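Re-run with default settings, no changes from the original entry. Doing this only to confirm the output is reproducible before filing.
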Amino acid sequence: MSRASFILEKVFGGYQSPFTRILLQEGDGSSPDGTKVAPKGTWLIIQYPLDPTDGDIYLNTDGSTTWLQVYNAN
């Protein structure tokens, strides 16, 4: 297995186009961890103008409600 295939399998659940599954969470700066369900490898961007969380980026790590913050815009 190539390194790229390994990352796609482990991080994105085998999904070959990881940047086509991107969610926007608008008007709410709270973490999606424990509340928002999505397939493993889905990205989520916080869009909450004038709040320190605006632009934060999360990645779903389990295909359920576990999210890892990968970018803190603050």
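The two ends are 37 Å apart (CA to CA). The chain has one domain: 3-71.
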